[in-house]
Design brief:
The chain is of the alpha+beta class. The protein is built from 6 helices and 6 strands; from the N terminus they run αββαβααααβββ.
Length: 224
């Protein structure tokens, strides 16, 4: 009969600490890292565990696009020093709070037309969190995901410039990337940049496979 709360991730708790301890009064940006055990109750993806260790990095207090690129550069450096090779960054922009509702409405209308062909989970996602439709891994949903509206088409000029700058920084730093229109990440608090670092590998049959090593994004509105 006990009621337990186990830590699912770090970002919300880090933001809470930033606000409660007055870190907004420190010289900005504030750079923090965290490490420890985290837990997930829902069915984990292939290769994931319900209990796992997670390492996080946060840059708080700046809107500059260099912050997004710096996080990605640091993650790539850590992984390469650990021995990872053939890494590529999947990246997308989710836009701002003003433009997101327009994109979600268009996305929902698109998927409603194909509802009879979608998996059971997507029938729930369209009601609760339509952005997660783009995160579906079920084979039957892939053709519809590929033809779905892109969040990049709905970006306001500021968000478009921000995304372009992030990509330019990655190019200058020699980090290979792909713009992935279906990348949304699991948390609904993300704004603008979202990314995943992918390890490209081949299996015994020589078929190429991809494994997501890490990921993250910008969350400008979470403090509010």
């Amino acid at each position: 009969g006990d009621r337990l709360a186990v830590r699912p991730e770090y970002t919300a708790a880090i933001m809470r600490a930033y606000l409660e301890h007055g870190m907004m009064n420190l010289p900005q940006p504030v750079m923090l890292y965290s490490y420890g055990q985290t837990f997930r109750h829902d069915k984990p993806q292939r290769g994931r565990w319900r209990q796992f260790r997670q390492f996080n990095m946060e840059i708080l207090g700046t809107e500059k696009s260099i912050a997004d690129a710096l996080i990605i550069r640091t993650l790539i450096t850590i992984l390469e020093e650990f021995g990872f090779t053939d890494l590529i960054v999947d990246i997308n922009s989710m836009g701002d709070r003003e433009t997101r509702p327009l994109f979600i409405k268009e996305l929902t209308n698109y998927y409603k037309k194909h509802l009879e062909h979608l998996c059971k989970d997507c029938h729930e996602r369209i009601k609760t969190n339509p952005l997660r439709l783009l995160d579906c891994k079920q084979e039957q949903c892939q053709p519809y995901k590929e033809q779905a509206p892109s969040s990049l088409s709905f970006l306001a000029s500021d968000a478009r410039s921000h995304f372009k700058e992030v990509l330019q920084y990655l190019e200058e730093m020699g980090i290979p990337y792909r713009v992935n229109n279906s990348l949304v990440r699991g948390q609904s608090y993300y704004t603008r940049t979202v990314f995943e670092v992918i390890k490209v590998d081949t299996d015994e049959s020589g078929k190429e496979k991809e494994i997501t090593i890490t990921g993250g994004g910008r969350y400008d509105n979470l403090a509010k």
